[in-house]
Amino acid sequence: QVQLVESGGGLVQAGDSLRLSCAASGFTFRSAFMAWLRQAPGKEREFVASITWSSAYIDYADAVKGRFTISRDNAKNTLYLQMNSLKLEDTALYYCAGGFRGRLYDYWGKGTQVTVSS
Description:
The relative contact order is 0.32. This protein is mainly beta. It is globular and about 40 Å long. Strands 2, 4, 5, 6, 9, 10 and 11 form a 7-stranded mixed sheet that branches. The model has no long low-confidence stretch (mean pLDDT 97). The chain has no helices and 11 strands.
């Protein structure tokens, strides 16, 4: 059974940092393309960052470039998102997603809430 379980979300103040984790099981994580996406209240889900299986290619949305860092530990089947200098507009439900067809994600987590206050 495939599972993606996000953790690490919470309530923080603007300027703070958070590290999200996504524990994967039930598929060959070390070969999968992985990503973080987010959805703010009343808005469509949007791409945040992605990483290839070897970490050779990493991509970020312009809104988070320079502040967020995506990484993975294939030995631990875990995906990470280090979020620094958080802004109010980063408030959203953050999802981990992955698969073997690029951004056509096969697997989704249930999300972890990140709330940034002033």
